[in-house]
Design brief:
The complex is a heterodimer.
Chain A: H1 13-18, H2 20-28, E1 31-38, H3 45-55, H4 61-74, H5 84-87, H6 91-96, E2 103-108, E3 112-118, H7 126-134, E4 138-144, H8 151-162, E5 167-173, H9 182-199, E6 205-208, H10 232-238, H11 243-248, E7 252-254, E8 257-262, E9 265-271, E10 276-277, E11 282-286, E12 291-298, E13 307-308, E14 312-317, E15 328-331, E16 337-348, E17 359-364, E18 367-373, E19 378-380, E20 387-388, E21 398-411, H12 418-421, E22 422-426, E23 433-442, H13 445-448, H14 458-464, E24 470-475, H15 482-495, E25 500-504, H16 505-510, H17 520-539, E26 543-547, H18 553-562, E27 568-574, H19 577-583, H20 588-593, E28 615-618, H21 624-636
Parallel strand pairs in A: 1-3, 1-4, 4-5, 5-6, 24-26, 24-27, 25-26, 27-28
Antiparallel strand pairs in A: 2-3, 7-15, 8-9, 9-14, 10-13, 11-12, 11-15, 12-14, 16-21, 16-23, 17-18, 17-22, 18-21, 19-20, 19-21, 22-23
Chain B: H1 2-6, H2 14-32, E1 36-39, H3 44-57, E2 66-69, H4 76-89, E3 93-96, H5 99-104, H6 108-111, H7 113-131, E4 135-137, E5 154-157, E6 185-188, H8 196-206, E7 217-224, E8 227-230, E9 245-250, E10 263-264, H9 270-279, H10 298-305
Parallel strand pairs in B: 1-2, 1-4, 2-3, 4-6
Antiparallel strand pairs in B: 5-6, 7-8, 7-9, 9-10
């Protein structure tokens, strides 16, 4: 072993053997540091982590025996132990020889417990690194001493900085392969410093190591007498963790769960995002803004005199104020903002590209709202850091976007508070987590673009026509009978002297929407425009009828939310697929089945049936005439 | 107790942070779950899980039942503690035994891997389907086995309980996406980030009741295939010439008694157990037969089939 240090940084067997209780007392006071390792393929990340586990005696004899056998069989280090095999878990990736996901490892030294996120360095896996970095206090950026600062190094450093990691370690690895040459280390450190300052990393700690040989890991190596320290573990043990900084900030606790065991107790459970709280403290409930004070901090171990950032507790309040999941309890004198339009950086994590205009679920702390994202202001090339024009974001794309939510969100800038500034976007159809976001600030656009008040309002226009405006939104499979019934409804309304307008899908595409195709994004934009036009027409006092397949619940709900409550009537023309296909009035099903029509609803594209439509028409049980009468009754009745 | 330990220290300890994280996870589940359940195997990890659940929802009792997927072959002492803990926590205890395994008399002596497959893997699926549970809390930890290091805290299962490593959702910050389609279910592992040492320390700190089998005592044992097995009841078929020998032993993990190897030990207190664990040179799962069937990636294979 070239490692000559005698510093016992890991678990001391002597103390355990002699005085276990003393050891346990000491261990119980250990703090926790979470860090990530990132590097390019073959920079030796897995080897370094394997080494940390091995040196901290987290590897047991039976595992070591298995490791030795594996090293001989599939290892890449000849007859020596291949530490990487300790940590490369999933069978598939072992065969490919690369890590394909985020893995979490644990080890303990005398001073700290560590959780390591092993994040892959492969080109297409930005997503995983962002995931691992989101919970890390520190990042170890690995560089192969033979290769120096690479494109990937820049990418990883940028991402670590983007996710707000304050402590960066530059681990120049494989020093054994460059003869422990100081000049090589200095050159790499200098090159990295130039790049780091460019992206805003003001300080980092550079350490020359060999994960394979063990140099400068647990103690200073005799092979690098020119390096004065610290060794990697020493640095990890002493770097300051952020919890003290979080405690110094104003108090915020997102409410997770309302605790009501009986009528006499009403508590609000949550984890403190920042600050501290004591009984008697004045607090404000957001977004409502109601104020009260904290009565008790309740736990199973008895009431606490104080709770600090990071603790999970249950608070009771002095007054009966409305407060439920999603609300934030905050210090009265320094409450966070609530807003419904934001600028944020998004990291796209799904195979399907972002669709501007589509509504996604946005989850921030314990709040879940519906959010739509505009086309990116720009995309960031993570290799060059250039800002590029972009219409969307693809998998691993990073861009700055504006988004708007259907309800106000209580938030803080990500830079100030990760808990109230970090969010995820969820696809409403697949439920997949499609993006991670970091809020910058709220946009006060609504305050700058005012509504022009007009003297004649929508009620006056409707009164003149002697009717209540409405939007009859027909939805259903192709060939279900939407157009037939919609047409009958309009004829009947016309006979009754009602002012109506039938917005037909094909007709709209000849004019207003002729620039749109049939991609998913274009279909959504098609529905959005139709919704806006229908809204203007209802403002004019008309009864608007639309007949679109509109297969996605998200878009139907989007239109519903544009209109005053009660004016949007969803009419589900419920015809089973087999029946619609049998009718096949336009011969489209035949074409789709033959593969000549792609993305045909019901065949190779889904139809999301309405859960609770205002009107459901079963076309196998009633004629179009009967259906039209039923709709009219419901509309005017 | 934890509050005393915190007093005077400006920084939360690693156990404080782990506890707060686990409680946060359990409460998050309540936001989206229709019918959650806590899998309860009576082992030390289950004991910690139950304790955390009581803390998370106090003064309410945990708003879900305990489910014990029983094989009828657990240690007697486990059944005793199980019933006692259910009484003390005020939670409903559901015990499920796969009726087909029962009828066919599946047992670890005659049926090998089929025993675990039918009683546990199949039994769990059947119980989840029967009661319609959509979220099941499990006590798996990432440090237990290599393939678990990559397991998410919220792990999604298809309607047929399948696990697809490529379909798992990224988990950022402390934000968990628990949305799912009808029929799909989620296994949630709130103690993912705990290690074996953390579990023991927490049991000591919080004074959590555990099965006495974790502590050394004289017990009747036979040595078979390199494992030290305890003769827990009269169903244990002794081979010709085999005579149970009284040895001072304890268990590092608990499962079906014919499948769980004991270690010779004098450690009769928590401190001594922890001491032995820290100085030991073999891993926790080494005494379990289950990891060794099917070669290298056997745990991962079991997970894809629906076992934890």
């Amino acid at each position: 072993m070239p490692n000559t240090s005698d510093t016992p940084v890991y678990v001391t067997d002597a103390l355990i053997a002699e005085d276990i209780d003393a050891y346990l007392t000491q261990h119980e006071k250990k703090s926790l540091l979470r860090f990530i390792t990132c590097g390019s393929v073959d920079d030796g990340k897995s080897t370094l982590i394997g080494r940390l586990l091995y040196d901290s005696k987290m590897i047991f004899e039976d595992q070591l025996a298995a490791l030795e056998a594996d090293s001989k069989r599939v290892g890449t280090q000849g007859q020596e132990i291949d530490f990487a095999l300790l940590v490369d878990g999933l069978a598939a990736e072992r065969e490919q020889g690369i890590t394909i996901d985020v893995a979490y490892r644990f080890f303990t030294t005398e001073k700290r417990k560590f959780i390591v996120a092993d994040t892959p360095g492969h080109e297409q896996y930005t997503r995983n690194m962002v995931t691992g970095a989101s919970t890390a206090d520190l990042a170890v950026i690995l560089i192969d001493a033979r290769k120096g600062v690479l494109t990937q190094t820049r990418r990883h450093s940028f991402l670590a900085h983007l996710l707000g990691i304050r402590h960066i370690v530059l681990a120049v690895n494989k020093m054994d392969l460059v003869g422990y040459d100081k000049a090589v280390f200095d050159r790499i450190t200098l090159a990295y410093r130039a790049f780091a300052s460019e992206i805003g990393i003001t300080s980092f700690t550079a350490i020359p190591i060999s994960g394979f040989k063990g140099d400068n890991i647990t103690g200073l190596s005799a092979n690098t007498p020119w390096f004065k320290g610290p060794a990697l573990i020493e640095h990890l043990e002493n770097v300051e963790v952020g919890s003290a900084a979080d405690e110094a900030k104003p108090f915020r606790m997102p409410v997770q769960w309302v605790n009501r065991p009986n009528l006499d107790f009403r508590g609000f459970s949550g984890q403190l995002a920042s600050g501290t709280v004591k009984p008697g403290d004045a607090v404000r409930i957001l977004p409502s803004g109601k104020t009260t004070s904290v009565s008790r901090i309740v736990t199973l171990d008895g009431d606490l005199p104080e709770a600090v950032a990071g603790q999970s507790v249950t608070l009771t309040l002095a007054d009966e104020v409305d407060c439920s999941r999603g609300d934030v309890i905050a210090a009265t004198d320094a409450p966070p903002e609530a807003a419904d339009q934001f600028e944020a950086t998004l990291v796209w994590m799904a195979d399907e590209a972002m669709i501007p205009g589509r509504a996604y679920w946005l989850k921030l702390a314990t709040q879940s709202v519906s959010a739509t994202v505009q086309a990116p202001k720009y995309e960031i090339n993570v290799n060059t850091l250039d800002h590029l024009a972009a219409k969307t974001l693809d998998l691993n794309g990073i861009g700055v976007v504006e988004l708007s939510t259907d309800k106000p969100v209580v938030f803080e800038a990500y830079a100030d508070n990760h808990s109230l500034g970090g969010f995820i976007l969820i696809d409403k159809l697949t439920n997949a987590t499609v993006a991670a976001g970091m809020l910058h600030f709220s946009l006060r656009r609504a305050q700058n673009v005012h509504w022009q008040a007009t003297d004649i309002d929508r009620d006056m226009r409707a009164n003149l026509k002697n009717q209540r405006p409405a939007l009859l939104w027909f939805t259903g499979l192709s060939g279900s009978g939407k157009s037939t019934i919609a047409n009958l409804v309009e004829k009947k309304l016309h006979r009754m002297n009602r002012h109506s307008f039938l917005l037909d899908g094909d007709n709209v595409r000849h004019g207003l929407n002729r620039d749109l195709g049939f991609t998913e994004a274009d279909r959504i934009e098609n529905i959005r425009r139709v919704g806006e036009v229908a809204k203007l027409m209802t403002d004019a006092g008309l009864i608007v009828i639309t007949a679109f397949i509109s297969p996605f619940k998200a878009e139907r709900d989007m239109v519903r939310s544009m209109l005053p409550e009660g004016e949007f009537l969803e009419i589900f023309i419920d015809t089973p697929l087999a029946e619609a296909e049998k009718r096949d009035v336009k011969g489209l099903y035949k074409k789709a089945r033959a593969g000549q029509l792609k993305n045909f609803t019901g065949i190779d594209s889904p139809y999301e049936a309405p859960g609770a439509p205002e009107i459901r028409i079963d076309t196998t049980a009633m004629s179009p005439e009967e259906a039209a009468d039923l709709i009219i009754d419901r509309l005017l009745g | 107790m934890s509050s005393d330990l915190r007093a005077g220290s400006s920084e939360l300890t690693h156990l404080d942070r782990l506890e707060a994280e686990s409680i946060h996870i359990m409460r998050e589940v309540m936001a989206d779950a229709a019918k959650p359940v806590m899998l309860y195997s009576v082992g030390k990890d289950s004991a910690v899980m139950l304790h955390l659940a009581r803390k998370a929802f106090y003064p309410s009792p945990p708003p879900f039942p305990l489910l014990h997927v029983d094989t009828t072959w657990k240690f007697k002492a486990m059944y005793e503690l199980r019933d006692r803990m259910a009484r003390e926590s005020g939670m409903e205890l559901i015990v499920y035994q796969n009726p087909e395994a029962k009828e066919r008399g599946i047992n670890p002596f005659d049926h090998g891997p089929l025993h675990t497959d039918m009683w546990k893997t199949e039994g769990l699926k059947q119980a989840l389907d029967l009661y319609g549970f959509d979220v099941a809390f499990g006590g798996a930890r990432r440090d237990e086995e290599k393939s678990r290091a990559k397991e998410r805290i919220f792990s999604f299962r298809t309607a047929s309980h399948g696990w697809d490593p490529k379909k798992q959702r990224p988990e950022l910050w402390n934000l968990y996406n628990a949305r799912k389609a009808k029929g799909e279910s989620i296994r949630v592992f709130p103690i993912s980030n705990w290690t074996e040492l953390d579990i023991w320390q927490y049991i000591a700190r919080e004074n959590i009741p555990i099965v006495p089998l974790y502590f050394a005592a004289p017990r009747p044992t036979v040595e078979r295939d390199g494992l030290l097995l305890m003769v827990d009841d009269e169903r244990f078929p002794l081979k010709a010439g085999e005579v149970p020998v009284e040895r001072s032993v304890r268990f590092r993990t608990l499962g079906c008694y014919p499948l769980t190897g004991a270690v010779e030990s004098e450690a009769a207190t928590l401190s001594e157990v922890i001491q032995e664990m820290l100085l030991t040179t073999t891993s926790e799962r080494q005494g379990r037969i289950i990891d060794k069937d099917g070669g290298d990636a056997s745990m991962e294979k079991k997970k894809q089939e629906g076992y934890f």
